[in-house]
Write a structure and sequence with these properties.
Helix content is 47%, strand content 8%. It is mostly helical and 169 residues long.
Length: 169
């Protein structure tokens, strides 16, 4: 069965999932951002089949999240280093880790984010860069952006109308 492609959808979440939505991709990025660069390091860490790892690494290179660098000519060997786009994915992984610790780790956190100066565990939050306030509802909502096609504009207009109608009751 052919998998549906999200690459041409106007939704930024769908487009992002096209690049990193496969679970191996996120785990490879996690390891790459942790300093792993070589095929055998990824394979040892993840226990992934070599053919699957090669496909996922190629896809991450093609998506611009990893850069392939040759470190040996004989035999030919490459390493995989996060690009700026790949490094920008770090907060997404931190948020996913915190969410997983909060909701799916009844035994407690096996990995946590810490302040390197104090060693204290920290909880990542998303903040508005302009004012530093945490982004939480109802003060923040999704709205169509300047490139939104008519269908997206209608969807958010309908949703916002329904929300305002519900608040007025």
């Amino acid at each position: 069965m052919q998998r549906k492609s999200f690459g041409d959808m106007p939704c930024p979440i769908a487009r992002s999932l096209e690049r990193v939505g496969e679970w191996w991709s996120m785990l490879i990025l996690r390891d790459a951002l942790h300093g792993y660069t070589r095929f055998d390091e990824f394979q040892r860490s993840l226990g992934i089949a070599p053919n699957m790892l090669a496909r996922r690494l190629n896809a991450l290179v093609e998506a611009g999240l990893l850069e392939r660098r040759r470190y040996s000519e004989h035999p030919p060997r490459d390493e995989y280093v996060p690009t700026a786009r790949g490094r920008d994915f770090r907060p997404v992984l931190f948020a996913l880790m915190a969410w997983g610790n909060r909701h799916f780790a009844p035994e407690g956190a096996s990995v946590q984010l810490i302040d390197t100066k104090t060693g204290a565990a920290v909880e990542p939050i998303l903040v508005d860069q302009a004012n530093g306030r945490p982004i939480r509802g109802p003060d923040y909502a999704l709205a169509p952006g300047p490139a939104a096609p008519p269908r997206t504009q209608r969807r958010y207009a309908d949703r916002n109308r329904a929300r305002k109608g519900g608040e007025a009751r």
